[in-house]
Structures are given as C-alpha cells and as structure tokens.
Amino acid sequence: MKILPYSLVALILLSGCVLEDRKLDTSLSALIQEHNLTGDPSIGRDIPSISDPKAQLGMKLFFTKTMSIPGDTACVSCHHPMLGGGDGVSIAIGTGAEDVDIFGDDRLVAPGTAIYDDANGGPTQSVNSPTTYNAALQDNFMAWHGIIEAADPKAGYNGAVGGMYNPDSAYEADGTTRIS
To answer: Residue 52: what pLDDT?
Structure first.
C-alpha cells in the first residue's frame, strides 16, 4: 500500500517537469525562429561536391607524401578519415615517424629526428592533430591554436574575404601577414 503514495508523488513531480520542458521548448523554438536558425551550417556556403575537379585535386594532395619537406608525410598521416580526421594519438607525430606508413596509436616518433625529445623519449610538440572534418565550415580560424586566422571573418566565406593571417607569411604593406 505504501507504493501507491510514492507513485502518486513521482507522477506529480514528473508532470511538473513535463510542463517546465514545454515552456523551455516554446522559448527555444521562439529563439530559433527569431534568429532564423536552420540547424544546417552548410546553407549559404559554396561547398563543392567531392566529385568536383578542385575537390579531387585537394584529395590527391591530401594523400601525397611529397607535400611534406622531408617527403615522408602526407596530410592524411595526421588527419586520417578513419581516425575522426585527426591522428588518434594524444601528441601529434607528423614528420619524423619511425614508420611513415603507420597511423594512429602505433605511430611512433623516431629517435634522432628534429621532433624527438631525448629527455622525454617522445615528440617535442604538445598538441594532437585537430580534426579536418567540417573544415569547410570554418570562418574564423584553422589549426589547433587558431594560428591561421581569417582577416575578415564572415559567415559562409571560409576566410575568403581579405585573406588569412599567418605568422609565417610575408608581411604586407599595412604590416599584416597574409596567406592567399
């Protein structure tokens, strides 16, 4: 007999939660409509199809090891699609891997390379590789620390307005650095 009163109390509490949830849903729906949010960040963007020639060229370059200075590491070495667009390890190992054809947890930095820290027995950098997934939706910056930054970030332009800043780029007449 004691179960009935507890069930009744639980039912009353749950009905109060449902009413609060409905109020929250109504408020949220009003905000979504007010700001014309669609839930689809690709709307208003010119994102090429993967079959587009420019996208095909980009994919070939992404998988080409000759793009790295030592010629042993491709973009895919640190941004593998099967590893969520990243490298699957806590600290990035780009060039200078023991075996350049291994990805993920088994990729190890080779002793004696520029990125090898003799004292710690591992890579010298302290970050992992950020994902490349949804890179077409980036408007403000790219790279883990935001080191490549849009000069004039406008939604939907992917940094195409005014170029991109990069500390390693040549200086412009106005003192800024740009990537074109």
So the answer is: 93
